[in-house]
Amino acid sequence: MNDKKTSAIIVAAGSSSRMGGIDKQFLEIDEVPVIIRTLSAFQKSEFINEIIVSTKQESKETIESLSIKYGISKLTNIVSGGKTRQESVFNALQVVDKDADFIAIHDGARPLISLEGINKTIQSAFEHNAAAIGVRVKDTIKVVDEKGFIVDTPERSKLWAVQTPQVFKKELYQKAVNELGEKASLFTDDCKLLETIGVKVFMVEGEYSNIKITTPEDVLSASVLLN
Predict the structure, then answer these.
(1) What is the band of 21 on the pLDDT scale with cuts at 50, 70, 90?
(2) Closest CA to 222 of 16, 33, 19
(3) Domain residue extents for the chain
(4) Are 40 and 66 contacting, i.e. CB atoms less than 8 angstroms apart?
């Protein structure tokens, strides 16, 4: 029996600049909008008590109506996103259930996250206070200086590509935001916030199919992966 409450924050306030101005959240993969595939995955998780979406002001009404149509009953709030990803998360954090123990932060544009991936990451966070899903890097990575020369080759076995969800004990995340102040809004990865104040984040092995939709080609790739 799980007695810990987890609130999901879905970040869907991106500019869609690489989509030619088309809002990627509403693009359809096999006739279902990207944002609904994402929300449905969290709706199905027994560990998720509520879902909050942080999005553009002009998208709020559409997301609300789609959520009603597709039965996303755990959706409790749709808030306006900020100028940066972190500001969008912070805006959602303001309306998280005061009794929530953990927050699960996920990109709205990662519609292929599996139920297993969500649950594994949350359970790992319950054990370690902070956890993120990701995959091992397949390619050899090079560190290059400002002149274009290779200066280092990190050991590939230690390199991971981080994805979402990233799940944290709410009080630890709030502590990081409070301690870092205005600097917190500049971070592009939630794990880095916790790492900066000395919290260790456990890495959960996920799936390469958990791609982020950023270009029109990704929609086709997602459809192929789905089928």
Answers:
(1) low
(2) 33
(3) 6-226
(4) no
- What span, in angstroms and rounded, lies between the C-alpha atoms of 199 and 56? 31
Tens digit of pLDDT for each residue in 137-152? 999 999 999 999 999 9
Query: Which DSSP letter does residue 16 get?
Result: -
Query: DSSP character for 3?
Result: -
pLDDT digits (tens, 9 = 90+) for 36-47: 999 999 999 999
Q: Where are the alpha helices (DSSP H) in 74-215?
A: 85-93, 115-128, 170-180, 190-196
Alpha-carbon gap, residue 94 to 66, rounded angstroms: 24
- The dotted CATH code for 6-226 is 3.90.550.10
Q: Give pTM, 2 decimals.
A: 0.93
Two tokens at 9?
Answer: 């924050």
Segment 196-215, tens digit of pLDDT: 999 999 999 999 999 898 88
Q: How far apart are the first and last CA of the chain?
A: 34
In the 8-state DSSP scheme, what is residue 210?
-
Contact 49, 7 (CB under 8 A): yes
